[in-house]
Amino acid sequence: MVDLPAIDGRQYVYRVYAPADALLADLFWEAWHCHDEGPFPRALDLFDAAVIRRVS
Fold first, then answer.
1. Mind listing the pLDDT tens digit for each residue in 2-48?
2. What is the pTM of this model?
3. Which superkingdom (predicted)?
4. Could you give the number of structural domains in the chain?
């Protein structure tokens, strides 16, 4: 799960499917691109602003 803050002050959560050895940066960019293509206000593109949690 990747939480991305957006310019509207809200957090948007994305479930990103990836192999166990995926880099955190890859998970971030996958979620960011999903958000960017959606109808939501622009997400902040700062890696350190994202919260990334592994879900099994």
1. 998 888 888 988 899 989 899 999 998 888 887 777 777 778 778 88
2. 0.75
3. Bacteria
4. 1
Spell out the residues 6+ positions from residue 25 whose beta carbon is closer than 8 angstroms to its own: 47
* Residues near 36 by beta carbon (within 8 Å), at least 6 away in sequence: 42, 43
Give the range of the structural domain holding residue 42, as residue numbers without chain letter: 2-54
SS3 33: helix
Q: Coil, strand, or helix at residue 43?
A: strand
Strand order in the sheet with 11-14: 11-14, 2-5, 51-52
Neighbouring residues of 35: CB distance < 8 A, sequence distance ≥ 6? 4, 6, 12, 14, 43
